[in-house]
Amino acid sequence: VVTDFAEVEPEGETESPHFSAEDVERLADRLGDAAKRALDRLPPEHRLVFLLSTFEDLSYKEISAALAVPIGTVMSRLFRARAVLRRELADFARQEGYFQEKSDP
Amino acid sequence: MKCHEAKRHVDLFMDGELSVPENLKVLEHLNLCRACASAYEGEKALRGALRSQLGGRPRARRPGAKLAGSPAPRRGWSWSSRRRPAPASSRRRGRGVLPDRPDLRPHDPRREARGAGHGALEDAQGDPLGLLRAAPRQLRLFLRHLRRDVTVEKFFKRQVGRESCSHYLSDLGYTPIGASVESHRGQPVCWTVHQDKAGHTITHGQITTKIAMEPGPLLVCDGVERPVVLIPADSGMTCAFVFDDEGEAQRFRKAKGLK
Questions:
Q1: Pick the residue with more confidence: A27 or A46?
Q2: How confident is the model over A45-89, as pLDDT tens digits?
């Protein structure tokens, strides 16, 4: 149980862009094309891990077994894929004028 | 857990890859930190939008969807003494078989100025289990997550069902619908709530056998005592199953070959 609430106070700006739920809702119809373009630019091994995790709901262990790579590799590929995707989608959203870089209060 | 740790864990959390203690820590942080909760909501929305936009396989129907047609809300739960009332000082400290459901947060004028609740949480689709109003914030947050994504499903599937006696319930047709983390004598206890198709609920938690054997409080809901079945587990722990009524408790005992 957290009793020291200083522990959970925001700690400055976030390092990577993140969307608010409202941004996503406004952009939802157009995110697909931007996401496809971003996915196309990913290295194939990163894209495959991302797709297996996101659309096939496979666990890291299952992906690791399916691709015969260590779980750590699965995690790093997935995290890099997501980071690239977030960055590309944030760029797209900025161009559309919907997305503003947010900093924690 | 601090914000930077929560941010590092949130992808693993959403993927259902954290251990139970880590999962609970992230949940606790999200419950307390608006900035991280907002980032989490955004990430969740983004994943949902990508899935629908990129033509992902439709997800299995979320358990939360079942809640829409559930019975009218109950007023709330309380834990109280059946055989002998605990001293007021003990009740304040949460002593007894099952703890009170206190607001564990220290006094925070800023929070009070913002209002008592989460807004959207209080506006959640009804209160089908009768838990939201009286439940601690952790449970309310958990139930909200449950309605909107599969994080909780994955959590239950990969962690809770395997590591506790909750698997007793799946073959009786119960599915997990929520969870709450309570502090009891300084130790976190994870209570999980399961529901069958008829809307009957079972609340399950692991407590120490010593506490389970003490005479004292049982669960009371709206002034009605709740039947409890205790099953010893490993390492000095006992599983407590709390039922809506005695009929359900008997069905459970019969199905499991218990006296």
A1: A46
A2: 788 788 778 776 777 887 777 677 788 988 999 989 888 888 888
Q: Does A69 touch chain B (CB under 8 A)?
A: no
* B233 vs B254: CA distance, rounded Å: 19
CA A3 to the chain's CA centroid = 31
List the structure tokens of A31.
């995110």
Are B213 and B240 in contact by the 8 Å Cβ rule? The answer is: no
Name the closest residue on chain B to residue A28, using Cα atoms: B49
Report d(CA B257, CA B68) in Å as an integer: 34
Q: Hey, are the CB atoms on A82 and B4 less than 8 Å from each other?
A: no
Q: What is the pTM of this model?
A: 0.42
Query: What average pLDDT score do residues B155-173 get?
Result: 56
Q: CA–CA separation, B154 vs B17, rounded Å?
A: 8
- How far is CA A35 from its chain centroid? 11
Strand order in the sheet with B187-195: B175-184, B187-195, B201-208, B237-243, B228-232
Query: Quick check: B206 and B164 in contact, CB under 8 A?
Result: yes
- Residue of B101 and A20 predicted with greater confidence: A20
